[in-house]
């Protein structure tokens, strides 16, 4: 778990960042518990350092998220289905017995009154304006895209596509300061565009998804196979490319070819102004970006070419974006008062 | 050219529709001239039938449109590049000498005072509120999508993808009541997604674009080749499929396979709630829709399946949507007064 304290508008400066392990093997309740304990730590730090309570909380996770309902519909990494995470967190952070009573999942609300955060938070009666902390829930790549778009590599850009190349490949579609969720929270899944109809079987069930060909994991696997070292990674492949290894160049060029094919499909449909590439593979820097720009230019015909830039916020982009969403929610509530 | 009079909110009922030929071989000036004459006809009809002046005008055309600037950057069918159509029409419809003086294309403003429309329009001095008609310019498939989304097959749907299958294939991405233009007016070009890397050469310069495999024109060509009749069309292919011709079934199934591949890519990226299929090919009805729904269902794995429906407004969708955009502009100007 990554967490951050985010300062107020307009800069929304990240004030503090921290990391903790996720007790995913202990189930959703334990994860919620550890998120709350983590939130309490950050709150205590914020109060101590800045003398002010947080005004809102944002949480993001990988998987399929119903943002409007605040429910994690499916999170493979966590083994979750239909977890009403926003409600669970909101009840705990705000210590609201009425919300508890309305909970559809009675068993999940048993730990309502005894967390460090709830204890430390002023009661609703004492300071009603501050105690009611809104909680927003979103998808980690969408919040990562939001952060890159507002305070990162896409700052000031009206339309961008953020594509992190990591274990998998996801995407976030930035339009006019927001990230498009789609009708069911599934928009942006560029990693599962089929770029080679006869390509490798993907975990999603399709064949030849971009993700199977040019994620950091896919490049690591391909290089591992080519060089015979089962521990070899995408970073090792990049180093071998830089040192002039022709086998590495073949692995690398094949990945870039698939990546360019998928990205050109994305820009044919979306016409972004900026393409922000992040994730582990982007750490290869110009070893990736120089041939990638060239490959996109070669494939595109009528499409307007976007600027292709590396992500700026690293792997904390997701939690920074969750903080920005929380600020948005706070601003919306203040302006509707 | 298709034109329509559109009634006020909330129904925005189409009141009148008409068609005229486009004198494209006479150049942009002649086309602008004929658009103005056509507008004058519609205005006269509206005044006579409803006793009221139009409040705004919307124009759409195929090609690459800069909506913000009101410029037709490129329209292959018309042979246009960088035509400031919104300004040309606005000057003429509003008879504004100041705007004329500011025109970058002095030659294009020579016909400023002698059109039927300008004569019939009250002068700016007489009725300033009504004489100043805002003009909006957009892309015909995007306005078609807007119309399908507001008063057609996507009415009330938050997110849809509108894909007309005609001579070519285009697309319009509907999000929350608007159609997404992209950064340079190029969003939605789903017809140029590559679905077969070794497919036929497309007019755009790529190979295997969806448009080369499953537009109405592509199906007509394939059936023509299969049946030996150079005049055969997609509609003939559909009839032959319905009568059980196995050669037609092969042509048809191949097109549906390519169409499903492109559409699944579109829904992987965009997650629409409804997929609206229009254009000539959609006139085959269930001969198209039944196997298409099945093919999309077979290809999709994790993607949420949208409802797949035929377009409702036919080939007047574009001009109806231009009228809706004009109403939007009018409403924005009224509310900012």
UniProtKB/TrEMBL annotation, chains A, B:
Query: What segment(s) does the record annotate as region Disordered?
Result: 1-28
Q: Which family does it belong to?
A: Belongs to the ROK (NagC/XylR) family.
One matching Pfam family is ROK
Which stretches are tagged as biased composition: Basic and acidic residues? 10-27
Q: What is this protein called?
A: ROK family protein
Organism of origin is Streptomyces armeniacus
């Amino acid at each position: 778990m990554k967490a951050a304290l985010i300062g107020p508008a307009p800069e929304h400066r990240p004030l503090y960042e921290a990391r903790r392990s996720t007790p995913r093997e202990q189930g959703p309740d334990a994860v919620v518990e550890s998120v709350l304990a983590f939130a309490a730590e950050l709150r205590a730090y914020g109060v101590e350092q800045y003398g002010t309570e947080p005004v809102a909380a944002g949480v993001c996770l990988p998987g399929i998220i119903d943002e409007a309902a605040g429910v994690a519909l499916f999170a493979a990494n966590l083994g979750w289905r239909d977890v009403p995470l926003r409600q669970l967190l909101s009840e705990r952070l705000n210590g609201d017995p009425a919300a508890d009573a309305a909970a559809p999942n009675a068993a999940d609300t048993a730990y309502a009154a005894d967390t460090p955060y709830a204890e430390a938070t002023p009661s609703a009666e004492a300071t009603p304006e501050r105690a009611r902390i809104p909680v927003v829930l979103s998808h980690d790549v969408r919040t990562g895209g939001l952060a890159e778009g507002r305070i990162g590599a896409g700052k000031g850009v009206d339309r961008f596509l953020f594509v992190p190349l990591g274990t998998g490949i996801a995407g976030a579609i930035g339009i006019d300061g927001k990230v498009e969720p789609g009708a069911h929270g599934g928009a942006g899944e560029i990693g599962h565009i089929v770029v080679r109809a006869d390509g490798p079987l993907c975990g999603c069930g399709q064949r030849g998804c971009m993700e199977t060909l040019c994620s950091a994991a896919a490049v690591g696997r391909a290089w591992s196979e080519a060089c015979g070292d089962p521990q070899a990674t995408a970073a090792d492949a990049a180093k071998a490319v830089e040192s002039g290894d022709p086998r590495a160049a073949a692995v690398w060029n094949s990945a870039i070819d698939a990546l360019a094919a998928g990205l050109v499909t994305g820009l044919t449909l979306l016409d972004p102004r900026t393409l922000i590439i992040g994730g582990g593979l982007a750490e290869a820097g110009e070893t990736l970006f120089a041939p990638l720009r060239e490959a996109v230019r070669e494939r595109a015909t009528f499409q307007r070419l976007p600027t292709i830039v590396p992500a700026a916020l690293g792997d904390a982009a997701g939690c920074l974006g969750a903080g920005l969403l929380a600020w948005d929610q706070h601003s919306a509530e203040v302006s509707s008062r």
